[in-house]
Amino acid sequence: MSGHRFYKSSKEDIIVDTVINISLTFLLIVTLYPFLNMIAVSLNDATDSLRGGIYLWPREFTLYNYKNILKDTTIYHATMISVLRTVIGTTTSLVAHVILAYILSRKDFVFRKPLTAILVLTMYFSGGLIPTYFLFRSLHLLNSFNVYIVPALLSAFNVIIIRTYIEGLPNSLIESAKIDGANEMQVLIKIITPLILPVIATVALFISVGQWNSWFDTYIFASSNEKLSTLQYELMKKLASAQQNMSASGPDYSAKGGSQSVTPNSIRATMTIIATAPILCVYPFLQKYFITGLTLGGVKE
Could you list the residue ranges that cross the membrane (predicted)? Predict the structure, then answer.
């Protein structure tokens, strides 16, 4: 009888494992296919891609799509600006987030509740684009590198994530440190910060991806200063230029360019790969902290 139960249990486990494996394989294919298709289109001849039928492998392999984008010298300066705004913006924003989250996590802070309410209110309401533009102009942020840094210093969502994580830490750690003579800044730097590295890495990924992918702020607040142009903004300009050229040429666009031409689809696929590659290189190193931060940051003991 026990052997029959063991066989039945094993058979059920095999069925469950098979269903799970099939489901995960299907999910993997659905997730990876769009990106692999983008790679194939970016490596395929642009005019040939207009015929369709490009799936996981280029039909007419070429690097011209990448050469067409990378031959523009402004791309390299724009990439440097994107890297600088990502590194500086992420670093300064993390410092501001951690400090404010620690302050709001202290139950003895008098203005804890009203400040939290104001912070949450910003998640539902904003001043709008035009008032924001006039505010930035009055603060002399227009056409300045600071327009990439100052407005992105704080995010209510990220502050709440870090605050929730800190509130889950044992309060005895802070009390012990204060008994030993540590002040609030020492507690934050030496006690709290090392314990919240997972959630810091999670928020750092959020901020860095947002900074790297941002282009609309360049278009609205810094388009008059070419030295502040970012990689994403330059790629968007190239895409818009390709779309205008195709519209102006009409249905004969693919025939006029020959084998050395680009189309909006090829530009879009190529710029997606170029813009995504740096994030894909960084993400594997933060994946462990990312998953841990999301899991623990939302749990309060």
Answer: 14-36, 75-103, 115-136, 148-166, 187-209, 267-286
Q: Tell me what percent of the residues of the chain surpass a pLDDT of 70.
A: 86
Q: How many CB atoms lie within 10 A of CB 298?
A: 13
Instruction: State how far the Cα of 279 lies from the Cα of 212, in Å rounded to an integer.
Output: 8
The top-level CATH class assigned to 63-297 is mainly alpha
Tokens 């989250």 belong to which residue? Answer: 101
Closest by Cα among 195, 214, 213 to 98: 195
Where along the chain do its domains lie? 63-297
Tokens for 113? 């509740």
90: helix, coil or strand? helix
pLDDT at 292: 59
Closest CA to 292 of 185, 207, 188, 195: 195
Alpha helix segments (H runs only) across 43-125:
46-49, 64-70, 74-105, 112-121
H or E element at residue 48? helix 46-49
Please state, in angstroms and as integers, the Cα–Cα distance from residue 130 to each residue in 136, 155, 186, 234, 295, following that order.
10, 20, 42, 24, 38
SS3 state of residue 174: helix
Average pLDDT score over the chain: 83
pLDDT tens, position by position, 265-280: 888 888 888 888 877 7
Q: Is the pLDDT of residue 115 over 60?
A: yes
- State which amino acid sits at residue 119: L
Provide the H-helix boundaries in 171-230: 171-179, 184-186, 193-195, 197-213, 216-221
Q: Which helix (H) or strand (E) holds 167?
A: helix 156-167
